[in-house]
Amino acid sequence: MIRKFLKDTRGSYAILTVAAMVPIMGALALAIDYAEVSRQREVVRNALDAAGMAVARRLLDGSPGETLTDTQLKAYAADFFNSNLGSVKPANAPLTVTLPTNSFGGGTLEMEATLRYDPYFLPAAAALIGKSSSDLNLSFVVKSGIRLKNTIEVSLVLDNSGSMDELGSGTGQRRIDLLKAASKQLVDKMAEQASAMRQINEPVRFGVVPFAASVNIAPDTDNKPWLDTLGLSPVHHENFDWSSMVQANMTAADIAQIGNRFAEYSGGVWRKRGSGWGETQGEALTRFSLYQDIIAQTDREAIPNTKRRVCRTTVSSTNACSKYTDEPEYQYTVAQYTSWQGCVEARPAPYNNDDTPATATNPATLYVPMFAPDEPKHLWRDVNDDNILDLNGDTFGYRNDWWADWKNSDATSRQRDMRKYFRVKPFEASPAGDGYGPNFSCTTNPITPLTDVSDAAGKKVVKDAIDAMKPGGNTNVPEGTAWGWRVISSGAPFTEGRTDGQRGNDKVVIVLTDGANTYSNTPSSSDGAGNESTYAAYGYAGQKYSTSGVTRIFKDTSNAIGKTTFTTSNYQAAMDEQMQKVCANAKGPTARQVNGTGSDNVIVMTVSLDLSTSKSNEKKAIDALMNCASYSRTTVGKKLYWNATGANLMQVFKEIADELSNLRIVS
């Protein structure tokens, strides 16, 4: 019997099953909850990654003019994160965002969520072993970190003055050609890096600012609100005397020559009065209107069976005619003499050295188109009455004599008298020489705004602009530098730049010149008009503007600069000081070294080409460029200045490319 009892197993299966149910159900509960918590952790991780990428894009590729606070960025991250959690309750996965704290360089964006899991079966399983739900710690920390590579906006401020046509030292190539090759090499290297970045739109942008005696902002900007289209700026009429055309000052003989056209100062603006203006009557008299109104005879056709007597030679001492010829009457075709080519003058101080937005409420901030006045003296014969239009035998030599003077007794009046511009230039009158006329000193191609070089088409635009550069004119480094800054600034005239101070974006101005600042003087002994210089971005060095009593080139310079010393060396000294001001302003009020490295708002890199410390004026230029440069952000104590020769210019630009590359990974 005992043996049969031991062999009987019919009831043991139930007992074993009951005994096994606890571990089996516990294991099942653990498996289900483990699978679910793993799924939720993956959902949270994916949501973190997605939110991190979204915030990174917002940080590094914000829209122009957009500046988000830390609070706004964190709220944006939370919204993006929560929208991607799916079945996970946002309350069960609170988000912590740690934004980069550095104001430059990319830094690291850290996203962290603490996932609290609400289990399905685990509490019951815990109860079987005498545990309560409060004993279960089902919180998991999920982290995601994104190392940001910052964006860069670079303005290439490149010397296009006449000396760039000379051969670079140690080479058989022109300096301008060496510069083109080095600049394009820099663009290519940065473009290659930019094309590898997928998470940021337009990571590297380049602009090109060719400069010589002035800077060209493009002739198709002539209707922009930041240009002085009404003649409001205190320098707009600096070289023009519109009172010569006030009706009370016009004689019948004057009206016979230029028609019923007068000028009237009304509401702070000089305006066209009289029926002779036609459809433009009442409009403002400005440099823009001058370009439109100056007319020349461009072609002619003989009228059959007509004859007139024309004086061809005069006696120099008396201006009496000594030789006449008979010619037919002609039907003439007239056209606008020339148009504005896009160059602007320097704004009056202090606005010449900053990027203050231009506004009509502060007229001095508006940009004034260049218009080089006709300098005395020039002779045209009026073929209708044989009258010599300029009877004053001025013996002074003037470089930019391109129009006929009115009959005034002195050179200054003849230069400033506006009546002369409203006679039609005769068909046979000598044309102005190449590069002369109202666009005198406007020798460069227009600025190329910031352009994305990660795109093949954008890179081509920048490199084509570099290839198109050509030498000509004097050297005005401060004006070139000021426009280099304005190109990367976010405000008008150029608005392509990211918001100033945007986190993770660096703005860089690279300035290269092969010579000292130059403003050509004209000695008083040969300048009866008191110009004291040729015309360029600061106007005439000898012509005072407004009531300041100081000419623009000397305005706001130190006492070391003689305000009435009109020499090329003094002009250089004044322009060197202007250069230091624009560089200091661009780098910012907190520009300094921090732990041996730079922290400027705008990074300024400067390069001198073929300059020698043994020549005093070139030594001054070298010192000015070195003082202008920022400190490196990656190499302790290093000034971002290079004194290059023609032979090593390519190597210098490779070093600049390395410096720019380091900026993109600094944290």
From TrEMBL:
SUPFAM superfamilies according to UniProt: vWA-like (SSF53300)
Organism placement in taxonomy: Bacteria, Pseudomonadati, Pseudomonadota, Alphaproteobacteria, Hyphomicrobiales
Residue ranges constituting the Putative Flp pilus-assembly TadG-like N-terminal domain according to the UniProt record: 11-57
Transmembrane segments: 12-32
Key words of the record: Membrane, Transmembrane, Transmembrane helix
Species for this entry: Aminobacter aganoensis
Superkingdom of the source species: Bacteria
Pfam families: Tad (PF13400)
InterPro entries: Tad_N (IPR028087), vWFA_dom_sf (IPR036465)
Name of the protein: Flp pilus assembly protein TadG
